[in-house]
From TrEMBL:
Family named by the database record: Belongs to the glycosyl hydrolase 67 family.
Organism from which the protein derives: Amycolatopsis plumensis
Statement: the UniProt record of this protein carries the keyword Hydrolase: yes
One Pfam family recorded for the sequence: Glyco_hydro_67C
Subunit structure: Homodimer.
InterPro entries the record matches: A-glucoronidase_C_sf (IPR037054), GH (IPR017853), Glyco_hydro_67_aGlcAse_N (IPR005154), Glyco_hydro_67_C (IPR011099), Glyco_hydro_67_cat (IPR011100), Hex-like_dom2 (IPR029018), TAT_signal (IPR006311)
Keywords: Carbohydrate metabolism, Glycosidase, Hydrolase, Polysaccharide degradation, Xylan degradation
Name listed for the protein in its UniProt record: Xylan alpha-1,2-glucuronidase
Chemical reaction(s) catalysed: Hydrolysis of (1->2)-alpha-D-(4-O-methyl)glucuronosyl links in the main chain of hardwood xylans
Amino acid sequence: MSSSDENEQSRLRRRSFLIGSGAAVATSVFGAVPARATSPGAFPADYDGSDLWLRYEQVADPGLLARYRAALGAIVVENAGRTKVHRHTANLSMAPGSREHLVESTLEAARDELVRGLGGLLGRPVPVQGGFPDRAVIVGTPDSSPLVRMLVPARDLAPLGDDGYLVRALSRGGHRSIVIAGNTDLAALYGTFAFLRRLQAQQPLTDLKLSSVPRINHRYLNYWETERLYAGNNPAGTGGLDGENGAIFDFTATGASAALNLPVILDRYLVAARAMASVGINGITINNVNANSFYVTPAAIEQEAALADALRPYGIKLAVSINYAAPTDARFAPDTLTREELDPYSAKFRDWWTRRARQLQAAIPDFLGFTVKANSEGQPGPQDLGYDHGDGANGMAAAVAPLGMRIFWRTFVYNAEVDADRLKRAYLEFGPIDEERQPDSTIGRFAKNVFLQTKNGPLDYQAREPANPLFGRMEHTNQAIELQITQEYTGQNTMLCYLGPLWEEVLKSDTYATDAHGKLLDKRLVGHVVDGTAQGHPDSAIVGVANFGNADNLTGHHFAQANLYAFGRLAWDWTLDARGIAEDWVRLTWSNRDFVVRTIVAMMMGSREALVSYQTPLGVAHQFRSSDHYGPNPAERLARDDWSPVYYNKADTAGLGYDRSPTGSGFTAQYFPVLAARYADIDTVPENLLMWFHHVPWDRRLRSGRIFWDELVYRYQTGVHYVSWLRRAWDSLERHVDARRFAEVKAKLAAHEADAGTWRDTCVGYWQQFSGRAIPTDGPLSIKIVVGGRAIGGFDAGAASSTVPLAAGTPARITKVIPSDPSVRCEVLSQADGVPGRAVVRVTGMSFFGPILKDYVFEFTR
Ligand code: BDP
């Protein structure tokens, strides 16, 4: 069974949503916002976003509220406290004054979530009861609950596995009930969250029949506590205040926060735990991949054990990132090794890691294992001793296998000696190990408890990349996909960028993988490779580099919460679509009002493609300034070639882009034949990947009919125009969204628009030095204005304003606006008082990814 019911629900909802969306967008773009908001947003005006999507505000629609109240009269969780989860920390406790509370079992977590959720949504407490009351929500497993055993046939539970759940409205013996059941307590908790989600999204309860099974077993976050953290409580957004470092989990806070370090549990840990569980995330590596060995010292292990204790009822297990050379770290003295002893085949090396893993397991019995970044960006690894990644990963794997742990070994390697093209290097290192015949004549050297953890694309979390060629190519090895939730290259904590469409694009992209005889596999999307169905792998994993921090809203930008949510939903079921997930998130997080939902979903859905457009259109990659990976610096040339924007753009007077075709670097050959051929040919490569694979001549004609240079400039402009529209769209929601969050997002969007403009101007200005061509002025939003009977045009749509000289005696009045595209809408916002004077014309239209808006500012002079 798949998660069919839930999919079907979201498909149905989606269809009706799509029909309405065009009109609604037009409404908000063109200013015809409902004149009077019928009621203010349901959330308090000062709400800070700290509940993530776990908001349980009272249902506003009186009819629906009455129906919910009639159907949901009691909560029954039999034996909720019977199966207590393991607790290592005797005196585990919350910080003084906490709102959240610790629970001792997973079923208690489910029960308490229902108490909180139903109480909030229904606006009155719903009692927890025993027995078999009418109108009860019953949660449990056949093991925990006699009622579940009675109400749910065993054959219906069998296909659900360990994590799958079902939710059903039943009528039995004169009793109406809603049953939430699974084979494990955790599955019952997952079902509880799925049920609450439906109520939050104000879906009907009649004929409720949901069931869902995750497609991927290990759904993990990697949390980078020290790097790429854009969610600290410091207003600058990255670091922390009051002795905290901005990370969500406090291990070493000082000063005013010293008393709040683990083992003390803070509210935000439990909000994060509940949020993770609500989307089915079941593991977290708690520290950065450039690992600090502190996290495997005894003192840290005690703190981690407390964290694990608090998260355990929610099904979240812990792992840590390690440094391959940790055994040489003096912090472990006298139990240290010399550098020469880091030989992955040596007993000394393996025993050292077995000892660490044992210590961890003694405190954290369900400890998952280690994430390893080795021989990458200066991190040590097996190659320092002449071994390869297979030797290193297997050495570590052998050390922890007896303890039932796994090694997540990252493939993010790009040793310059391997090949001149950075993109080719990982496969050249890992591919041969996967294909190596073993003494027992099996193929592939990586151990069974090794997962190779591979970024979605071959470079480094860019806003658009082709899929990493390793997907499908590593038939004999377990592979996890790694996605970046924290927005390092996608606007950090300033830009609104919904990443759902990026991940959907990757997970649904066709690898054209073939079997050993060259026949195309039936299931061969990246998602199939990851979930194991493409090549028959029994185990599967997906990893998201998380964006948690200690900011009030936990993610820095209110809209960054959506990325965490979307990652979790896709990790559970990668076949879901990004739009449906966005709609759910908006309903849970902002409002159920149709106008608000449609507007915010539209804002989110175009945001990633807009970012691609104003940052790196048409496949030009990695043009970020090296200092912070936020702003542009296409001219930058660093000591390391493959960190330099110029290495990626290869700008010259002939054109722009990296030739990776067979006559260039030959990277295209790492893909399966269909893709290799498609990417190799400049005529067949998808235009949005053009410069990933080709050096494109400035005057090459593209599918739009425009030459490459013109199209490139338009892409930059269009991306910025979308952000201008975002601002207007958000403004239209002022009376429908709680005040604090409204203002915070509004301020972010203003910075976003300015920074998008900087990207456009910096990049176009730099490319122009090579193209030697003028900025085209006949783009999608180009207009002529008629002043004094004369049509004047040729304005740069990227310029902040245009100076228009008027002949003596000509009145400074715009009498007509003539757009080059008749479908755009023009509006004179203000006329000039005289000369000199200023007039503003607003032009709104549609791009291929969403609405766009430009306010032309005209300065009239004589
Ligand atoms: C890069 C990040 C760096 C990470 C690295 C990685 O800039 O902080 O350490 O990825 O994934 O994108 O190892």
